[in-house]
Amino acid sequence: MAEAHQAVAFQFTVTPDGIDLRLSHEALKQICLSGLHSWKKKFIRFKNGIITGVFPASPSSWFIVVVGVMSSTYSKVDPSLGMIARISRTLDGTGYMSTQTKDVVSSLLFGTGLWVALIFTMRYSLKVLLSYHGWMFAEHGKMSRATKIWMTMVKIFSGRKPMLYSFQTSLPRQPVPAIKDTMKRYLESVKPLMKEEEFKRMTVLAQDFAVNLGPRLQWYLKLKSWWATNYVSDWWEKYIYLRGRGPLMVNSNYYAMELLYVTPTPIQAARAGNTIHSILMYRQKLDREEIQPIRLASTIPLCSAQWERLFNTCRIPGEETDTIQHLNDSRHIVVYHRGRYFKVWLYHNGRLLKPRELEQQMQRILDDPSEPQAGEAKLAALTAGDRIPWAKCRQAYFARGKNKQSLDAVEKAALFVTLDETEQGYRKEDPEASLDSYAKSLLHGQCYDRWFDKSLTFIVFKNAKIGINAEHSWADAPIMAHLWEEIMATDWFQLGYEEDGHCKGNTNPNIPYPTRLQWDILEACQEVIETSLSSANLLANNVDMHSFPFHTFGKGLIKKCRTSPDAFIQLALQLAHYKDMGKFCLTYEASMTRLFREGRTETVRSCTTESCNFVLAMVDPTQTVEQKLKLFKTACEKHQLLYRLAMTGSGIDRHLFCLYVVSKYLGVESPFLKEVLSEPWRLSTSQTPQQQVELFDFVKYPNYVSGGGGFGPVADDGYGVSYIIVGDHFIHFHISSKFSSPETDSHRFGMHLRQAMTDIIALFGLSLNSKK
């Protein structure tokens, strides 16, 4: 076969006349092109390193400063206040330079020093400016003169055309809150959830901790905050994610849906070709750092560190702790279809495969009649089960030979692709069941057809709908959401399809066929696979998932209530939960701390005294509309305050978590911390942010709305709720719980949530849109 021949660089045969050396010119060409690609990437990294290293200045500014200094010198003006003369006298000792050369070198050295000093001054000034967060607490829509001046200064010191990582060294460190402030906020957060006697007991524990053990732990935490880039993130990754020994599937990984109501082509291979190419174009922009850093209000930058491990990344299982393996580059993907694994090279003749060529490769895989090898079909179930059996199995059966080579191909791939044999997505004739099925398929599939350890598993269904399953330890959902938005926009508006549904362009018969990965999976290993699959199936079958669009109204109408859409939805969730359970519970809402370098997330405790008062008023028929509106406004203001405190490093839970980690290192027990960190989050919520609104025109394309993404339930007897606000008229919810809990029912909660949303908006007397 041609592809087998091209895989060999040279052959030799021993003959009576000597050694007959036969070179494969095509193979040598590919090796040469591969080397050129590698050196090109190294050069781009080197260039970007220089540009980022001198930010907020630019390399060209060095020339301007040096020329300015030298021009002043020749004009008999000394801008150095005698420094150039001192440098010149120092150079006198060499004895090798003429007077004119010494003048030029002295001016050059001083100009360079001045340029470096200006860079550090600008960078430090920007860091000081970004340490100010008062702007966030200003009333919405009203900006003081001081804030306007501050934002202007930030823009001035932010330089021109920043690259993805340009702001990293200018971002402030995440501050450690004061013990007394955290204790006060914690007690305030649990007061509505505890009976009086229980609250008094917890108050005593908190006060004792704040006076005795707390200051000692706080000292170590302060020390870490001065030394480390971020005092939370490394411990959060290590202890919350990598040390977890339970399954990643359902418990940790999350998923993302595509556009709900439209599909650009019915051809599975074509959709795979376009979208994989879109992903690789995004990776190319990431490698070149051409992705624009996210900036709040188009001014205040967020940390970009989490983008680094988006591709070429895999979580590696260990008996005590997992590790994250990340490569600078990967030139292939691995595709799973009908129980077989295929390695697909992404480059040919030194260039990235085009969409039509990728479609051709996907179609070759779909048409391949070969059967799975023994144990191959359900191999990925190892990544769906408990971590310790997978770690032991990996060490015992995948540490050498063809198994190691094939496993390396999977773990070192740019991403993992599943060509799913099922059809998923929204169906008009059965919208509820179809979306629930779509969500469950993305969350866990068949438990053996997604590689749950990979940073990114990209799924293409038989009817050409797409989705993502993402591992959580390396980054948080907004990073994946940013990629996902660009994939969908590129697929629809840039690449497009031919009228017959195929990708644009031509096929290329010279591209080698995808390569089947070879496995030698022993019976003992197959037994471990079956055991993992059995436990994974129990977990997956226990997930009660409900995914639904909310069309009654959206962000546009909520804003007419003069409140934050997120605060509105959080209060609706509190009302729905109370109607569903008849009680309040500890509520988790994810917020981000990326205003700080290497910041990740913080918890907003959404169940507050104010929200409880509002909910109780809503179920009390004696309360007037005016009373309910007043309580609603108070509850919304409280929620927005808590969200802003979390974003600016004054949250509760990450501080308490780090204090607990320090106590474990010191070998001391804290009854207070032990009790706090064991409290279950029976309502865990998260908003999927829409970061690139300019990519979709919802007025022109009202049906181009994404369903966002979701995650599994955090507590056995609780709910996981995710939502995305798209445009002004659409919100999509994902609700998860467990069938094994007699207290929860995702569809029942969804019904209460719809009713809660309409009940709250009805208080304002606004007419609802009728758009469906």
From TrEMBL:
Enzyme class: transferase
Function (record text): Catalyzes the transfer of the acyl group of long-chain fatty acid-CoA conjugates onto carnitine, an essential step for the mitochondrial uptake of long-chain fatty acids and their subsequent beta-oxidation in the mitochondrion.
Key word Acyltransferase present: yes
Protein name: Carnitine O-palmitoyltransferase 1, muscle isoform
GO cellular component: mitochondrial outer membrane
GO BP field: carnitine metabolic process; cytoplasmic pattern recognition receptor signaling pathway; epithelial cell differentiation; fatty acid beta-oxidation; long-chain fatty acid metabolic process; long-chain fatty acid transport
EC number, UniProt record: 2.3.1.21
PANTHER family (alphabetical): CARNITINE O-ACYLTRANSFERASE, CARNITINE O-PALMITOYLTRANSFERASE 1, LIVER ISOFORM
Active site, per annotation: 472
Pathway terms, separated by semicolons: Lipid metabolism; fatty acid beta-oxidation
Organism of provenance: Heterocephalus glaber
Pfam families, sorted: Carn_acyltransf, CPT_N
Gene3D superfamilies referenced in this protein's UniProt entry, alphabetically: 6.10.250.1760, Chloramphenicol acetyltransferase-like domain, Choline/Carnitine o-acyltransferase, domain 2
InterPro entries recorded: Carn_acyl_trans, CAT-like_dom_sf, Cho/carn_acyl_trans, Cho/carn_acyl_trans_2, CPT_N
GO MF annotation terms: carnitine O-palmitoyltransferase activity; protein-macromolecule adaptor activity
Reactions catalysed according to its record: (R)-carnitine + hexadecanoyl-CoA = O-hexadecanoyl-(R)-carnitine + CoA
Family from the record: Belongs to the carnitine/choline acetyltransferase family.
